[in-house]
Every structure is written in C-alpha cells, then in structure tokens.
Amino acid sequence: MKQxxxxxxxxxxxxxxxxxxxxxxxxxxxxxxAIESDVAEMLGNRIIDNAAVAAxxxxxRPVVSARSQAEAHPFQPGxxxxxxxxxxxxxxxxxxxxxxxxxxxxxxxxxxxAADYSHPGDNIPPVLAVAQHCGLTGAxxxxxxxxAYEIQVDLVKGxxxxxxxxxHIAHLGPSAAAGIGALLGLPAETIYQAVQQALHVxxxxxxxRKGEISSWKAYAPAFAGKMAIESVDRVMRGEGAPSPAxxxxxxxxxxxxxxxxxxxxxxxxxxxxxxxxVLDTYTKxxxxxxxxxxxxxxxxxLGPKIGDLSKVESIVIHTSHHTHHVIxxxxxxxxxxxxxASRETLDHSIMYIFAVALEDSGWHHERSYAPERxxxxxxxxxxxxxxxxxxxxxxxxxxxxxxxxxxxxGRVVVKLKGGSIxxxxxxxxxxxxxxxxxxxxxxxIRKFRTLADGVxxxxxxxxxxxxxxxxxxxxxxxxxxxxxxxxxxxxCSTATHGIFDWRGGAPAAVQRAAGNR
Length: 517
Description:
Elements: E1 2-7, H1 21-30, H2 37-57, H3 61-71, E2 74-79, H4 92-104, E3 112-113, E4 117-118, H5 124-133, H6 138-158, H7 169-184, H8 188-201, H9 216-236, H10 252-256, E5 263-268, H11 293-306, E6 312-319, H12 321-327, H13 343-346, H14 350-360, H15 371-374, H16 377-383, E7 386-390, H17 392-399, E8 410-416, E9 421-426, H18 441-452, H19 458-469, H20 488-491, H21 508-515
Parallel strand pairs: 6-7
Antiparallel strand pairs: 1-5, 3-4, 6-8, 8-9
Helix pairs in contact: 1-7, 1-8, 2-4, 2-18, 3-4, 4-5, 4-9, 5-6, 5-7, 5-9, 6-7, 7-8, 7-9, 8-9, 11-14, 14-16
C-alpha cells in the first residue's frame, strides 16, 4: 500500500491530475490485477448477505415505495429488482435505487469502521445493476466489486467525515463510481472524472442519522449508488466534473471537512497489488447499528448472571467515543429514550437495544423493534437505568490500525439494589472475523434462509444460492439470476403512489390527502 497526502491547493497552484486523490483512486480502479479466490468467495458471501436482508425487508413501506418508483422506469436490457420477476427489467440506476433501499432498510448487512463509518455492501446494488444491464460476466462483477470495496475501505480509513457532520455516503458515491469503472474496464481518465462527479453530488449532512431518524437513512446509500451510475454515464458521454473535487480551494476538504490547512493520508494499493479490502469488513448477526453487535452478544451472556432484572439499579456501558456520542447518552438525543420513537431511532439507541437484549436474551429484526415491544413497562424501566460513558481505552482500540486490537465493544458495569456489582466486557461481536463464531459461507446461507423463510419459495432460494456458488464463472447474461422473485400477491400489500404513478389525475392517496386539508 502507498500513502497519499491529500490537502487543499489554491487554483493558481494548478495541482496536476497525477497528484489528485480522484486520479489515484481511478488508477487503482483501472488496474486489471487478478482477483484472489478468497476475495471472490467473500464477495459472494456479501451478495448472499444483501439478498438476505432484502428478503426480510421486501414488504416494508420504504422498500415498497422505492420499488414502486423503480417499476415506473422499465428498460431493456435493464437490471433486475428484488422481488420482481427476472424478466421484468428496470433502468439500471433505478434498479440500484430499489435494491439499495431493500438492502439498507433493516441496517443488517456488512460494515467497516475506522476513521469513519461505512456499509461497503451498499456498493453491490449499483455495480450489479450496471453489470446486469451491460450483459457482463461473473468475473467482471467480481472485478468491479473488489475495486468498490477497496476504495470505500481505504477512504474510510483515511478521511473522517462524521466529525464535520458529513454523512458517510460521501465515500460511497466515489467508491461505487470507481467500482463501475473497474467493472466496465474504463480508462483512468473516465473513472477520474466520474469519481469527482459522484463526490460532488453525494455529499450530505449527518442529520439523516440524528434526532428523529426517518426512512431516508435507508434511501441515502441508494441515492449515492444511483448518482454513481449517472455520473459514470455522463462522463462516458464526454462530460467533465468539478475538479479537483477533493483538493480545490472551494472544494470538499477546504469547506466541508478540515479546512484549507487540513491534511489527510489515504493508503491505496500499488499498481499490481491485489485488492483485498473486502476481507477487512464484517457483517451483522443482529439487525442493529454495528456498535451494538458485540453489546447484544454481551447482554446474552450477562442476562443469566444478573437474574432478576428488576433488581438492577443502574447499568453503565463504558465504550468508545463513537458509541457514546452517536448511539449512546452522549448524543443528547431525547428520542433515543422515547418508547414511541421510530424504528430507525431505536436502532441508534444502545440503551434501548441493550435493555431488550437483556430481557429477551437476543435480538430479532422485527419483534425487537415492534411498538408494543418498545412500550413494554419493564423494558422502559430498565432502559432508563442504562447510560454510556466514553472510555479513552475503548476509543483508542476503536481507532487502532492493528486488526488484532481494533474493537467495537465495551465494558458493562451493572449495579444491583443492595450494592453488588456485576461487570463483564467484550471487544468484538461473536460473528466478527476475530469473534467467538466468525461468519463463514454456511452462516451467510443460514442467515439468508432464515430471513427468506415465508418470503421466498424454497426452490427459488436454492436457485439463487446455486447461482452465487458459481459467481466467478457466471457467463454473460447469467448475472440477472443474482436476484430473487416473490409471489406478486405479497408485494402488493402496501402499494404506494406518487408523481411517477400519475396518469391524467391525482393518485388516490394524493386525492385523500387533499381531502383531509
């Protein structure tokens, strides 16, 4: 890996393209280095993982809405959308939109945390949609996904966005554009412009993950993927982008990140060096914010030790800066303690998550978020006894570059009535590569079958898994098998309407809303 210093330059300095981060990203994406077998296998695992989460979310309102929008944009040859038949093809950017929301809705797929946060699996919907539309092969798809994961992970290691309240999709737009460029075998010049365009149009604030969190949290990565496809398409037609997007004096670093005097170091593979970053990432066993994964596992372990939870006087979670300030009491969000809060908000409340995990000895992607579950009196009582504090030791481990030391857990101190103390700690989730039960291909398949049960017919599940097992050798035209079909009766349960459904008069939902004013 080579270290690249990234800082602001004045326009008069005329920073050469070869010195710009976007160009260096493009060179990595354009490098046709062979993809190693363990990388290809892990990419297959993540395709299964994404489909698993999409199966569980396919009838949820945000996903239905996104799919309905996508269906309004049929196209040939086009790409597939989860739930629809394989013969029903959608314009690739809209297919990426529909699938991106389905993958992200439950906050249940892969993650990578370093200087910033990310869900690298968000790269799969746009790269796969373009691969399907363009009739490419499994080897092409693996090459594109390996590049997308590499760029996202390397950016997340080197550039912190959240301290400047910029949402993490600002790294996703460039990585998806780079992955699409690698997929298509585009020259570095084209990828360079597309990366800059994608950065420019996908930089948004972190308010999407603050306060009253809405369904936009699921839509934001899908938006980045959609914009990445449009950026590559635009540049392929000969158009340019704001440049230099990262280093310009009115650009990303100067005004949205650390300012004109800030300097970042991004490590990228050397020419000819394999792209292996996907192996640094990890998936979720539980449908909740990643920092809660290890703590859910710890709650399962602590529950029997505590016994009667009504005897708990207080629970303090000693953890990292991120866990404390983003999903803990350090966020100072009253919504995180509100039994009527949205699912998205409860997902970002470690106090709620830890209380439920203690009571239920586990976590369920639907039942654990149900309004009646959040409103249970015993849960509310326990919930409000839980607080977090930042522990510098856990913050240091969170930011460590040493994989064997890096940790996302914490130490929990339970004080019982009468004064006795129960304490335990956990560094990484059980499913983490260094955890008690690291996820392997059978675990990904089991997760898929569990979440697909009652949603996808058994024969269709088998067909999909069989296709992924042949991923690197899939021929042109076979990538459209990397989806699943659901009984249409199930998909129509919560139809939504909007501008794209307009047919000479306001849709019924709009008419009803107008009548209520």
